[in-house]
Amino acid sequence: MRVKQGLMVSTAILSMLLATGQGFADSGWGDPSGNGPDTSERVPSDVDQTVDWSDLSVTLDRDGTLHIPGGKVSSPESISMIDAAYGSVKKIIIEGPLVVRGSAHEMFAGLKDLTAIEGLNNLDTAGVTSMSEMFYGDEKLTSLDLSSLNTTNVLSMRNMFALNYALEDLNIANFDTKNVASMHGMFDCDYVLKAVDVSKFDTTNVLDMANMFYENNALTTLDVSGFNTAKVLDMSAMFIGDDNLTSLDVSGFDTAKVTNMESMFLGLGKLKELDVSGFDTTNVTDMRDMFNMYGTEGQLTSLDVSGFDTANVMHMGGMFAGNRQVKTIDVSHFDTSQVKDMYMMFGDDQSLTDLDLSNFNTAKVETMDDMFLQNYALEKVDLSTFDTSNVLSMYDMFLNANQLKQIKLGTNFKSLEHTALSEINQTGYSGKWQKVNQAGQGVSSKLWSSAELVNDYQAPLGAGTYVWQPTEKLATVTVKYQDEHGKPIHDDQVIHGQTGTVYTVAPEKIAGYVFDKSSGSTKGSFTDEDQQVVLTYRADQITEPSKNTNYEQPALTQVNSSSTPTLNEALTKESASEAKAETNDVLPMTGMLHAAWLQFVGVTMLLGVAVRFWFKK
């Protein structure tokens, strides 16, 4: 994956260099068959040499210093011709006033060993109209003080300081740029340039700003807020690769005439905000990689393109790729009827959750590779208006978009082949896709794994909305048992059931407690939300029967005739005793006690009869 990412960024940058930057192709440096010098073979010199250069005699001494006397030159040839023919030029000294007329194109260009130029204050460039590639490709030049350079009549500054790989300090604060029409690639690939003051540039007549600050990696600040861009036609790759810029104010840019914005902000991974809400994009035809932060951490959290007019745009590949912090991009109004490529359009937008593509017209689109690559947070996408009839490649369209739970496909979405739709591995889902209606209800008994859906889907019969099939969720009722003080007296009981089915909760018998009351519904239906029932018990107050301490067993007394009771008297006495026991709140006699008492009374009566019989004798 990383190799793929790196290749895509490199390809984007290389394509810009080849397509919009003239660079080496213009100058022909190192190409024996081109217009530039062949530097492959140099004649070493052990002596000072006098050389003719544009009607002036100049001296190249043995240590590589070129001495240029004062004089006048008209559209002078490049000093690199001397470098190629006579030996390496390491230093240039302009020893007197040097008047230059016409063009200074490539005047000091292509001197790969040049480290310094002295006497630049002797240059009179009031009559110069072109400074294009004037210092182009001076790879070892570390500083330039051009504070005295007269640029009043200059029309072109194209690639003026391009490929100055070692240039750290550049003084151009006094440049008069009111007549300049081209600033294309002006600071292209000046990798270590720490600062460049263009805040006073008059860009009223500039037509071309493409590649202007291309790969200025060391820049941390850049003030272009005062730029007048009313006439600019090309802003492609204008700030590409300026990956240490933390702020950039382009809110005042007039882009009404701009036709090309390809890679304009590509790779600005440390930008935390970017206001392009006022951009007029009516005439723009190319927005490829415009906001592509792929391969960076992407610090932007929002991007307002809601006002963009895209009716004429033909290229949107990689347009928003790599914006890892952006959660929503409003493209709902985009007119994509002319667009030919959408590859990587939203690729690696890892936080993207909201994306309305329901208005997209893709009838002319040919590539959709990696379109939603690594959209980790995106859960649904509406592709119902997509027409893939002319799409040639959809490789990895959904690769690693592993939260994508809903896809809406239209009758013109021909196939899902090679889209790398992620398998469903989350809990709560069956691992299958199901086709549903607008109410979310299944309309088919057939289910698909991601691989099966990719293989089986065919328009128009397959058109519709596909969602992850959820597993059946059981509803729950939790029953809690507590005493009157709220203290748990039994383990909770959890009852499960299907939503809508009926449940009943009955109190459990708990030793030492008696059920008292309940809170919550002890009878009802399971719902989507968990429910709770609380059963409250009180301690059991049952007391063991008390002993009858007031009951006295009748005592055996001495028997005589006068005290011997009759049967009626005995029964009457027994009844009285029972009444007394009840009155004294004591338990009544048991059956055994009652029987013993009757036996006692019977024996007593018999003894009494026997005694009376004895005395009558």
From TrEMBL:
Q: Give the top-rank taxon of the lineage listed in the UniProt record for this protein.
A: Bacteria
Q: From the record, give the transmembrane residue ranges.
A: 596-615
Keywords from the named record: Membrane, Repeat, Signal, Transmembrane, Transmembrane helix
> Where does the record place the MucBP domain?
476-538
Q: Does the keyword Glycosyltransferase apply?
A: no
Q: Where is the signal peptide?
A: 1-25
Show the segment(s) annotated as Disordered.
Answer: 27-46
| InterPro entries tied to this protein | Dev_Immune_Receptor, DUF285, Liste_lipo_26, LRR_dom_sf, MucBP_dom
- Looking at the keywords, is Transport present? no
PANTHER family, sorted: SLIT RELATED LEUCINE-RICH REPEAT NEURONAL PROTEIN, TIR DOMAIN-CONTAINING PROTEIN
Under what name is this protein listed? BspA family leucine-rich repeat surface protein
- Supply the source organism for this entry: Weissella muntiaci
Taxonomic path: Bacteria, Bacillati, Bacillota, Bacilli, Lactobacillales
